[in-house]
Amino acid sequence: MIDYDIVVVGGGPAGLAAAIEAKKNGIDNILVIERDRELGGILQQCIHNGFGLHIFKEELTGPEYAERFINQLCELGIDYKLDTMVLDITEDKIVTAINTVDGLINIQAKAIILAMGCRERTRGALNIAGSRPVGVYNAGMAQRLINMEGYTVGKKAIILGSGDIGLIMARRLVLEGSEVIGVLARGGYAAGLGRNVVQCLEDYDIPLMLRHTIVKINGKDRVESVVVVETDENKRPIPGTEKEYECDTVLLSVGLIPENELSNNLGISLDRGTRGPIVNESMETEMEGIFACGNVLHVHDVVDYVTQESRRAGESAAKYIKNQLNSSGRCIQTKAGEGIGYIVPQKVRIDNLEGPIEFFMRVRDKYQESKLVIKLDGITIREVKKKYLIPSEMERLIINPKLLKENQGSILTVDVVSKEA
Amino acid sequence: MYDVTIIGAGIVGTFIARELSKYQLNILLLDKENDVANGTTKANSAICHAGYDAEPNTLKARFNVEGNKMMEDICRELDVPFKRIGSLVVAFSQEEMVTIEELYQRGIANNVPNLKILNKKELVEKEPNISPNAVGALYAPTAGIMGPFELAFALAENAVDNGVELLLNNEVKKIDKLEEGYRIYTNNKEIDTKYVVNCAGVYADEIHNMVAEPQFKIVPRRGQYFLLDRIAGSTVNSVIFQCPVKNSKGVVVLPTVHGNLLVGPDAQDLDDKEDRDTTDDRLEYVRKSAYKTSEKIPFNTVITSFAGLRASPDTKDFIIGEIKGTKGFIDVAGIESPGLSASPAIGKYVAQLLKNIDGSFKENPEFKSTRKRAIHFMELSNEEKNEIIKKDPRYGRIICRCENITEGEIVDAIHRNVGGTTVDGIKRRVRPGMGRCQGGFCQPRVIEILARELGKDFTEIPKDGLNSNIAIRETK
C-alpha cells in the first residue's frame, strides 16, 4: 500500500488546478493519476485558441493553457502517474490503479478529488436509423484523430449537433480541405457558445441549419448520404420534409456525459440534472473527504471556470485534511426553480463560507430581458437582471455570504422571470 | 485438390470445419467477408434455446434439442462464455396460458428436459421486474445465453489448429462440376474440391443454384435490437419470451453473457440480402413490445441498436443434406432460429453425412479438442494480474476504459491463428468499443495497435469491411 494525502483522479484541467491549489494550501503529499499518455486531458487536442480569457486575460490554445498548469505542477513537485487507469475507489479511500510499470497498485488516500471529465454521447444513444458504415464519428474523437494522430477522416461532412466541439470541428474540417454541408441543430438555437458560432461557422460560410436533424444514415462500407428533416417546436422530425445529402462523414456533437462510473461504484449520489455528484460549497461529495470538480461534476463550456471550480475543490481538500472543514451548522440546499436546469453546488454549509460563493447553473430555454430571482424559503433575497439567457452558456451567480447568513431559510431557489420566453 | 470446401464461415460453417478436422482431410473454410462470423452470426439474440418451439419431428426440433445438450461442453472446451440461465415464455392472460400448455406439450414431444409451468407467484419470484400483467409462464431451465461470434472465432481457431485452412475475402461466383468433385471460382481464385458444404447463410440458395435446379428460396428476415448498458443487465435474470400471439412473436428480453441487457428482435422479410439498416418504426415497435414484458426496462441506458438477417427458408424447416443427383454437394441452408442452438448438432450430423458418402475418412490422431481463449485480464486475481504485467507490461495498459480491456489482450487477439485485422474484428474478439462510449476514446488507440502489429499504415486499418478504412490520409 502506498500512502498519499490527496489522490487526484484525472490530470486534465480540473485535476491539475485542484492538485496545484491543494499544494499551495499546505498539502505536500499529492498524487495525480492520468489515464492518457500526457497531462492536460482533452485540452491537448483543442489546438484552437480562446482559452484563458478569464484566468490569464489572454487567448491561449488548449495545449498552451494546459502547459501553464503542467509547468506549475512540476515546479511544485507534485507527483503524477501517466498511462495509469484507476479501476476502483473504496469508501475507505483506497484507490486501485494499474499501469505498465507499477502493475496493479493500491493507494491509501486521506482525501480524493474526482476529476475524470466527461465523454461524448454516441450515435447508439441517439438511435439514428440506417446502416452502420464507417464515417460516423463523435466530434471529439474526430478531433483527436485529426489534431493528435494526424489523420483526416473524410472529404464531405455534415455535423449533427451544434455543441462547441461540433462548431470547432466544422471549421477544423474546412481548414483540412474538407467540405462541410452544414451544422444541424435540433432546436432554434446553437448548443455551443455564441462566439464559436461566429468564429467557426459564420467566418467560414458554413451554414447553421437550425431546427434540423438527421433521421437516417446510408452507405454500405462508408457513409454515402444522410437524410435530414426539419424539426418542430418540440424538436421532433416533421414528416414530409426529408432531404437527402450526399456526404462521406457525419460528426456528432450531441452532448457530453460526466464519466461517473467510479463515483457510481463508490456509491456517491448523483444529481439527475447534472449527472455528476451532489456537492456542497467545498465541492465535497456526499461522501466525506471525496471531492469532485470539472466536467465530471457538470459539463462546462469554458475551461477557465473549470479551473476556478477545481481550485475550490483543491483548497477544500486541503482544509479537510487539516480538519478545517465544518460539517455541522446551518446547511442550505439549492433547488433549480422555474426555467433552471440545475444548480451547483447543491448544498451550502454556511459556516464554511469565507468569501462570496459562486453558483453555477444552466437555464432550460432561451430568455431575453429577464432576471434571475434568488429566494430563500420562498422569500426573494436578490435579483439579477439578465439581458440574454441561453442553455448553451453556463450562468454564474456570485452571492455574498452575508445575504445567506442574515436571512432565514434552508432552501435556496433560483427562478428565471421573463416577459417573453 | 481439397477434400472438403466449406462455403461460409459463420457459426454453422465453423462448427462443420471443426467437426471435420477430427479426420485426416484437406479442408478449406471459405468466406466472402474479411473476417469469420461477419454475417448472421454477428447479429442475433445469442440464445441457446431449450427446444420447445419447433414442431415435433422437424430438423429444427431434433437439432435444437441435441445442440442444446452439446453446447455447454463445447463452450467449455473452447473456453468461451455460456450460461445456462433458463428461459421463460410469459403469458399475459388465461387464454395465453392455453398456448403455454401447448408449448409445454410440444416441448415434451421434442424431449426437452425439466420443463415446468410457473404460476404468477413463482414467476414473480424468479423475475421481480416482470410486468404485473403477467399471469404465468413456461420455464425451461436448459435454455442458455452465449457469445455467438466468440464461439465462431474459437471454433475457427480450433479448426485451424487442427489443420483446416481459412480463406477470407473470397466470394464464390461460379461452381463447375468436374469429373470428380467441383471447381469453385471466387473473385480471386479457382478452387478444386472433392466435396462442397454450402452454409452460405442468406446466400445459400444462390450457391445451391450454381450446381442444381432451384429447390428453395432464402428470404433475409431482418430483426432489430437494442443493447443496453451493463447497469441495466440485471433487469431480468433469464431469457424472457412473450407468449406467441397471432401476427406477433413479441420480443425477447435477456441479459447477455457480458452483463448487458439485450432487447429484440422484430421480424421483417426483405429483398436485399445486405440490408442491415435499423429503422425508427421497427425499433419503436421493439421498445413498446418489450414494455409488455417489463415496464422497468431502462431504455435511457441504450448504448446501441443493430439489425441482423435471419436466413429464412421458404420450406420452413432447416435444409440439410446432399443435393439429389449432385454427389458430394451438401446444402446446410435455411439455418434460422434455432440455428445457433442447433449448430453443434448440425456440425456433427454433416460430418457424419460426408463420412458416410466417402466411406474412407480416417480419424485425425492429432486432433486437439480444446482451445484456450486469450487472458481475460480483469477476471484474474490481483496476484495473477501483477505476474502477467511483469511478464508482459502491455497487460498493464488499459485501452478500453468502459470494458477495461488491456493492450495485451488486443495484441493477442491480433496474433491468434484467426486473428482480428479490423477495428470491429477486435471489438468482437475482445470487446474494446463494446461499452458505453462505443469506442469514442479507444478507437484511435486500437487502430494504432492494429497498424503497428500488422505492419500496416494507420490509413489502411478498416472499421469492418474491406473498404471501410477510418483515416483517409495524413493531415495537411
TrEMBL record, chain A:
Residues 4-297 form the FAD/NAD(P)-binding domain. GO terms for molecular function: oxidoreductase activity. It holds the Pfam family Pyr_redox_2. It comes from Wansuia hejianensis. It comes from the Bacteria. Keywords: Oxidoreductase. This is FAD-dependent oxidoreductase. The keyword Oxidoreductase applies. The keyword ATP-binding does not apply.
UniProtKB/TrEMBL annotation, chain B:
Gene3D superfamilies: BFD-like [2Fe-2S]-binding domain, D-Amino Acid Oxidase, subunit A, domain 2, FAD/NAD(P)-binding domain. It holds the Pfam family DAO. Residues 398-452 form the BFD-like [2Fe-2S]-binding domain. InterPro entries: BFD-like_2Fe2S-bd_dom (IPR007419), BFD-like_2Fe2S-bd_dom_sf (IPR041854), FAD-dep_OxRdtase (IPR006076), FAD/NAD-bd_sf (IPR036188), G3P_Oxidase/Oxidoreductase (IPR052745). Residues 3-353 form the FAD dependent oxidoreductase domain. The lineage of its organism: Bacteria, Bacillati, Bacillota, Clostridia, Lachnospirales. This is NAD(P)/FAD-dependent oxidoreductase.
